[in-house]
Every structure is written in C-alpha cells, then in structure tokens.
Amino acid sequence: MLIEVVKSKIHRVRVTEANLNYIGSITIDEDLMDAANIIANEKVFIVDNNNGERFETYVIKGERGSGMVCLNGAAARKVQPGDIIIIMAYATMDFEEAKTFKPSIIFPDSQTNKLI
C-alpha cells in the first residue's frame, strides 16, 4: 500500500509579495528551499494562517538570501503581503517506509524569513 506523507515543511513564513501579473506559482528564497528539501517545480500545498485559504501551486527559485516568499498569478488573490503561511510538500511512499520517514521541517524567523 502507498500513502502520502509530509516530505517538507516551511513553517510560518511571511508573504513578502503577491504578483498577480505572473503566470503562476510561489517564488521562495533558495536558502529556504534547500533547508526544507524542496526543489524548483515541485508541487506544494499552502495554508494561510491569516485568512484560512488553502491551495496548491508549484515552486520557483527565488534569490538566495533574499527572504522572498512571493505568490504569483491567481494564487496572489489568496494572500496579502504580510500574511503568515505554511508551505508543505508531500511524497508518496510505501506504508512501512512511511512509518520511519523523517520530513524536513524548518522554522524560519517569521519577520525576516531567514533561517534561525
């Protein structure tokens, strides 16, 4: 049996920008991506702690060290700059493997989005 489990999580980062006039996605500081084991074009699930929105999109690399977390395209309508969000990526794996799997979870500073 295969199940879906959390693979990566960036917990409580601040939205720095919302760009409606882009083709879609979320742009994330490459330092945050590396720390959370998330890659470009990976599908992610986003939860907005300020308004309760929940949605999926894909990742684009942002400038390393910038703290950038920018929702693009239609997703920009779901958030406001300054909102606190949680970004999660999931993986499908065997049930037995999932029992011992350890996700990559990071807790950046929610004011600066920098790694602590």
Overall morphology: globular
Sheet-strand content, in percent, reads: over 45%
Secondary-structure element series: EEEHEEEEHE
**Which CATH-level-2 architecture?**
Beta Barrel
**Structural class based on helices, strands and sheet pairing:** mainly beta
Biggest beta sheet summary: 8 strands, mixed
- How many domain regions? 1
Describe the overall structure.
With 116 residues, this protein is mainly beta. The protein has one domain (2-106): Barwin-like endoglucanases. 11% of the residues lie in helices and 47% in strands. Strand 4 (43-48) and strand 5 (54-62) form a beta hairpin. The model has no long low-confidence stretch (mean pLDDT 97).
Set down the secondary structure blueprint:
Layout: E1 2-14, E2 17-19, E3 25-29, H1 30-36, E4 43-48, E5 54-62, E6 69-72, E7 84-94, H2 95-100, E8 104-106
Parallel strand pairs: 1-8, 2-6, 3-5
Antiparallel strand pairs: 1-7, 3-6, 4-5, 4-7
Primary descriptors:
47% strand, 116 residues, eight-stranded mixed beta sheet, Barwin-like endoglucanases
How would you concisely characterize the structure shown here?
The chain is 11% helix and 47% strand.
